[in-house]
Automatic annotation (TrEMBL):
It comes from Malus domestica. The keyword Metal-binding does not apply. TPR repeats lie at residues 230-263. The lineage of its organism: Eukaryota, Viridiplantae, Streptophyta, Embryophyta, Tracheophyta. This is Uncharacterized protein. One of its GO terms (biological process) is negative regulation of ethylene-activated signaling pathway. InterPro entries: ETO1-like, TPR-like_helical_dom_sf, TPR_rpt. The keyword Nucleus does not apply. Residues 275-302 form a coiled coil. Keywords: Coiled coil, TPR repeat.
Amino acid sequence: MYRAATLMRNQNVQAALAEINRVLGFKLALECLELRFCFYLALEDYKSAICDVQAILTLSPDYRMFEGWVAASQFRTLVREHVENWTTADCWLQLYDRWSSVDDIGSLSVIYQMLESDAAKGVLYFRRSLLLLRLNCPEAAMRSLQLARQHASSDDEKLVYEGWILYDTGHCEEGLQKAEESIEIKRSFEAFFLKAYALADSSQDPSSSSIVVSLLEDALKCPSDRLRKGQALNNLGSVYVDRGKLDLAADCYINALKIRHARAHQGLARVHFLRDDKSAAYEEMSKLIEKARNNASAYEKRSEYCDSELTKTDLEMVTRLDPLRVYPYRYRAAVLMDSHKEAEAIAELSRAIAFKADLHLLHLRAAFHEHVGDVMGALRDCRAALSVDPNHQEMLELHSRVNCHEP
């Protein structure tokens, strides 16, 4: 934020926006949205400014800007005077475009505007909850789900939202029951989708995948819009991949792409890879990178489908776009270790552990410490990991082995 503000003061507008966009690409922070909103105001880019202030109000309806002096809602009122009003049809077209390009902040803004109209609010609050989950805002997502339940237009719709609330709070079986109750009242896309999603997550029986396929096929037969049908086709493709039915999976992903469900590129890339066509998989992920607004995860996935030099390049891009993603650090550390650059490998892991001390990273660094004979370093990481999970079997074994060499 400081660099972005400094660049803006020096009238380096594009660099300032690029800097703040880089942060918003991996962390949806209110203060970053506020700063970008101010940048857009200075540029008199009111369409972009209202997008950000509406996203702010979605996340925090009572948010106050300029160190608490002015309510964000007041700024929105002022900016709206400079922005053309959209009809309901315009809003749906905008939502479809932004959802398809994985522009989650833009989608949140459009839904905020739609909620002011007479549109079906339950459906919109539900869509908003899906976006907020994708943006790693679980508390705001749950508030939105509760509002969806409150504004449901029918009993069957209300049961679906109650099912998602139960599912998201760890009550999967109860969520399934709500889906079944909803289907008894009315066969709807959302009820079948919820039942399929919950069943896929909760059942350990391999045969349940055929039931999930049937439920998703039933969902696709019900009326819904292309945003949700694209998601159902994508999920159905994933189930077919897990069952080894690659042709059926490819058909699902291609049909999803026909209705602009951009994330289906990732599923189709996986199909190409399983058919031993890494080149086609790489090209498919490149198409997603071109379309997606926030694409660090796409670069990370594409890195699996190329040679070592391109993998290294893609993972460096991932770290630039989202420095909090752990996998690139682990990969680079492993490559450095294979090249007998032990100190550099340990330093690379330490960069990741500085912001996320998870068990896998600590276990890997402990093993690296053991390899170079640093008993105290290995013990330190073992003890840190075991304080998080005292029953971690691999860490217990490593701790026992290293402990024998403690001075």
